[in-house]
Fold each of these.
Amino acid sequence: MMRPIAKPDLDARTVFDTCTAGASPKTVRTSLQALKDTVANAATEYDAAATARALHTFGKFKDQPDGVPKKTGGINKQLKNTYTSRMVHKRSAGRTFYDQLLKEAPDGRCALCGQGIADTLDHQLPKTHYPLLAVAPANLVPACRDCNYYKGEEAPTSAEKQTLHPYYDSEVHDHTWLVARVAGPPKPSLVFHAAPPPEMAPLLAARVRHHFTTLKLARLYNPQAGPELRNLSRSLPRLPANMIPEHLRERAEDWAASEGVNSWQAALYRGLAGSPWYTGGGYEEPWK
Ligand SMILES: [Zn+2]
């Protein structure tokens, strides 16, 4: 699930300045460099809005400075190019910043799903709509291609429709909300859900559900269960039957301590430990 990362220790103005200092032709460079204050200001306001969990209120920066959505040409296009040509491009001036942000991916994995390989940066607010944030470090999150694709170019339209932000929303793991329900008999399988508990703040709970649905995380986590279940069908029969629920609970606690309470592994073992059918022999079913 979403993996918290410390907010990047990179100054938005310095990053933008470095990326654009060598832009060509000179007319483009001059117009980009003239935007340094505007870009720095947008990054400061972004930080305040993200801290307040209110990136949906960032509307005044939408389509700025051109003021026109998806305009071809114009300075907005150059701002977006600043990301692709002046930061992502291997030999570009900003590539070291790109690499620095990407290497913060936990275990090299996507910060949005915790599972896919992080091989890109996702714009938390899409650069299509927020060109001023195209290279703002706090808006760039190490992510996998799937999450980047599913998140797409959508900007949040309400507080509830903000996906979780790895730099700002670590509190979301103060509660356990990833649940795996055991399906069976005849054959065990697991279906993952986002099920925030009633004591969780309603806004965070809504965002958890939105994040889970938008990134199609059930599709990603459900198939992880297969190898675990096959492995358990071999190891569990070696234990005394009355020890099995406790054994699975301990595995759930170990995963929660090492990977987080909302890791799919912790959810999977919680789900199995809580299923009387599974612990009572369901673990053997598919192999008989
Ligand atoms: Zn991902």
Amino acid sequence: MNGSAKQFDGDPDMPLLWYLRDTLDMTGTKFGCGMGHCGSCHVDSKATRACVTPMKGAEGKNILTIEGLSTNGDYSVQQVWKTCNVAQCGYCQPGQIVQAAALLKEKPKPSDSRGS
Ligand code: FES
């Protein structure tokens, strides 16, 4: 979890999102739809949706949350978010930032053109 090993011996079917929010008190990852549609709960470099990822599916994986991108909000995507006044209500912003970080990890110079 954000570079730190964690132990879990609870219900293997419990959603990862509950573990983050209720057990670890990491509330940056949000509950939105709870069905894997909205993206408020994105984590890690593949933008996994934590609301539909059971704990057994997270075993042995490196999970990156919004808290792991930066402790003080100076991650490049967060800075652009601030500069461009992206946030509206702000609720889904952590999920969108983690999604953008995942895109930039896979494609450092993305473009609007399709298929490249
Ligand atoms: S809460 Fe909507 S995708 Fe997870």
